[in-house]
Inverse folding.
């Protein structure tokens, strides 16, 4: 199958150009001046399909480097399977995800890794890779880290929160970091002070403060800043590269910026929810259906921050200055009925997570519309840097000859109403949308995954199992 995408504005992280893109089989074969012929060969007459992209952007497929499909968490499972979650991703112009293999304390890491392959294999709409979560860092975990690198799992997430579930103490963290500094892998950190949060949670509950709003209040920015600083110091001690996940506090960004100014290999992502949503408006919301439990729809960790403290402004600023390098979703959806509602009367029992895998490209494109970031920066934050950060750049994250034919045609004049109500789009397996009512300037028109057209004008044309596992190399982003 040969496809020629003509006349679009090709957007890479490095800039924009009007060009034709030839996809041959599963690979981009050429990026050409519009209407050009290849050694006198009439391209348009010799391909299977010509797609007119005039007036539209032609971008490398989105890479969501932080998802949790069917994750076991809080006594239930994230409601998107690899099948439903990756199909929703495809609709939103995301053609690669990196999901987290979960190890709870006591579980065998390599068994879990194989289990995640069983969950994903034959089910995905788009390509996928894995990070590994390390919960109890035993000596066997360190050996497993080395083995997983050979399997293409080159990044390991540790938690400074969720005691008794995921939390590693500082000694365990240092042990894993020492190994990472030797084997070249990347340590990802959930940076919140778990002991402090556990205490505040108990104190709020004891005062009868049980609504979702107190989830946010019990996880203050100081707990995020402190843990971010500690993680940076432990990484500094060991020489390990460090990537802070789901940053929401401006004070955490300042810690990250200072470490980067010192030349340390410290990186970070933020997520759409921290750019647009707030503690007061979401976690404190009420509705006819759910009363003061409405805010459970937005319970995630790190939590949404107060709109009065300037966090969102600082997130956009950090995205411009490259103190924040990546935007992923932390897609971890739970339905209100039967899942989130386990926390009625006790916010600490609400499964943590928001579903956004379908909307990330659209939501971050609004940053371009609002003048917060440039068009190439949109592509860099959502595709190119995730590819480089996690060792898949060249194949992914760029429109250039030799890259996989993961290409999205994005119409800046299109419109997307996101949510689940009448006339709205939503393919995630959730009974609500955290983004209900968002009106998007722009629209994902056509999505190619390794050369196959899998989405065309809102219609899904792919099949489950189209997506393949990619082995990742070591990070290509380190200084
Ligand atoms: O609330 C969240 N973030 N749920 C997913 C688990 C995690 O910590 O990333
Ligand atoms: Zn986390
Ligand atoms: Zn500041
Ligand atoms: Zn997560």
């Amino acid at each position: 199958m040969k496809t020629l995408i003509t006349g679009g504005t090709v957007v890479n992280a490095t800039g924009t150009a009007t060009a034709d893109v030839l996809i041959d089989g599963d690979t981009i074969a050429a990026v050409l001046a519009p209407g050009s012929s290849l050694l006198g060969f009439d391209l348009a007459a010799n391909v299977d399909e010509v797609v007119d992209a005039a007036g539209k952007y032609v971008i490398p497929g989105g890479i969501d480097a932080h998802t949790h499909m069917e994750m076991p968490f809080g006594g239930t499972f994230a409601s998107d399977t690899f099948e439903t979650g990756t199909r929703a991703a495809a609709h939103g112009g995301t053609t690669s995800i990196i999901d987290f293999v979960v190890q709870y304390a006591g579980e065998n890491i390599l068994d879990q890794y194989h289990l995640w392959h069983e969950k994903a294999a034959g089910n995905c709409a788009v390509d996928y890779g894995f990070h590994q979560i390390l919960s109890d860092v035993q000596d066997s975990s360190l050996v497993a880290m080395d083995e997983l690198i050979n399997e293409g799992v080159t990044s390991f997430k540790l938690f400074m929160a969720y005691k008794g579930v995921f939390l590693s103490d500082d000694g365990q963290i240092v042990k894993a970091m020492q190994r990472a500094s030797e084997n070249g892998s990347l340590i990802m950190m959930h940076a919140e002070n778990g002991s402090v949060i556990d205490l505040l949670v108990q104190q709020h509950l004891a005062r009868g403060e049980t609504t979702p709003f107190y989830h946010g209040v019990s996880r203050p920015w100081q707990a995020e800043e402190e843990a971010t600083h500690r993680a940076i110091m432990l990484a500094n001690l060991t020489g390990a590269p460090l990537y802070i996940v789901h940053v929401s506090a401006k004070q955490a960004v300042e810690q990250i910026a200072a470490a980067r100014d010192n030349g340390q290999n410290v990186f970070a992502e933020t997520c759409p929810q921290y750019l647009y949503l707030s503690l007061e408006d979401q976690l404190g919301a009420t509705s006819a259906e759910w009363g003061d439990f409405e805010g459970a729809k937005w319970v995630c960790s790190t939590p949404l921050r107060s709109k009065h403290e300037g966090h969102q402004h600082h997130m956009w600023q950090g995205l411009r200055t490259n103190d924040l390098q990546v935007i992923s979703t932390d897609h971890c959806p739970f339905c209100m009925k039967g899942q989130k509602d386990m926390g009625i009367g006790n916010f600490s029992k609400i499964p943590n997570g928001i579903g956004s895998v379908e909307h990330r490209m659209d939501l971050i494109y609004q940053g371009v519309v609002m003048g917060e970031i440039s068009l190439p920066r949109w592509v860099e934050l959502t595709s190119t840097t995730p590819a480089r950060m996690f060792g898949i750049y060249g194949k992914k994250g760029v429109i250039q000859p030799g890259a996989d034919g993961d290409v999205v045609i994005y119409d800046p004049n299109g419109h997307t109403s996101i949510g689940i109500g009448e006339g709205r789009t939503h393919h995630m397996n959730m009974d609500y949308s955290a983004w209900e009512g968002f009106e998007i300037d722009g629209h994902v028109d056509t999505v190619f995954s390794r050369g196959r057209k899998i989405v065309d004008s809102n219609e899904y044309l792919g099949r489950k199992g189209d997506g393949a596992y990619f082995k990742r190399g070591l990070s290509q982003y380190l200084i």
Remarks:
- The longest strand covers residues 407-418.
